[in-house]
Design brief:
Shape: elongated
Structural class: alpha/beta
Helix content: 55-70%
Number of strands: 8
Radius of gyration: 41 Å
Number of helices: 10
Strand content: 15-25%
Number of domains: 2
Order of helices and strands: EHHHHHHEEEHHEEEEHH
Strand order of the largest sheet: 1-2-3-4-7-8
Amino acid sequence: MCRIYNTIGALNDIRFHLVRNNLDEFNSLDELIHFEKSYHSKEQEVILKHTLLLQQEKIVLEKDIATLIEAISKTESEHEQQLKQRLDFLKQEIENLSIANSEIIPMIKEYWLNMVIWIKIWFTPLLFRCSIIITKRKYKLLLSKNNNRYQHLSNNFTVAVNESSSLQLQKLQLKRTVIKGVNNSIYGALGEQKVVDVLESLSDDYILINDFRCTFYPPIYNRKENDHIKSVQIDHLLISPSGIFLIETKNWSNHSIANKELRSPVQQVKRTNYALYRLLSNEIKKSNLSFTRNHWGDRKIPIRNLIVFINNKPNEEFQFTKILALDELNKYIKYFTPSFTNKETEMIADILLKISDRNEISSKLNV
């Protein structure tokens, strides 16, 4: 089985975008696709949920309003009854005090206790009246609040539902906007994974590096194209006994293939090929690898350009770049005669892995 390094690039890009927007809650690309397809039904679910909540709130408010009206009407009579009981108790204390003082308590103490109890008797009605006013005021404020809320729900129910659900709908819309931002990458990732699945069936003589990236300081200058190459990225680098296959994956429709505004993948792989050739040549010289030298001269490490189309393949052929359908890929790769040993293939792969400046994004999202 082919040895594989790195997550596919499109998936890594999606992870970065989601994590940056605090949306690392999806486990698979299928979940992202399902969210987009079911977005409108999710909107309706949110609205229905808040509709039911507000209907239940109206029922509770009706009961609370009736309870408050009854409580207000009973407040005065209940306080009057409590006041009578309190006054009767205080009067009984005076009677008990008078009986007790006739023999035991000194006159001064009896006078003092009588005065305290009478003060309580005088002030108790006033305190109860204040309590009635405060209690009624509290009930009426709560009743007014509940009445206003009930009237708002009755007269503006749709508006109330929109108000209640707005925050949740905004979060849902924000989530959709974030996912729409990686919509092309989602289908790109599905295509790249199909290529990985096909290449995985190759023997362990092959080494696959997904999402190879490298930045150059200073830029590499391609005199022929008058191009200063600051960085390169390629979907897959397959290091094999017959050389390096530089593979770009396109999960394009016929419309995308015909779209002249889209960047040419042929130019992309040719540009990367040149940069990779220069980069690899320099690294091999610095590493002083003996296998690259022969008594006839320096051995060539072939770098072949491939573009794999998942669904639709253009009919045209291009110089220095092979266009393949997915089911043609492995057959084409195996066509070439091996010229490197397994150890030499591993040494080439090690050089490429060391110079790659790719960052892996930690996320639970997988294909």
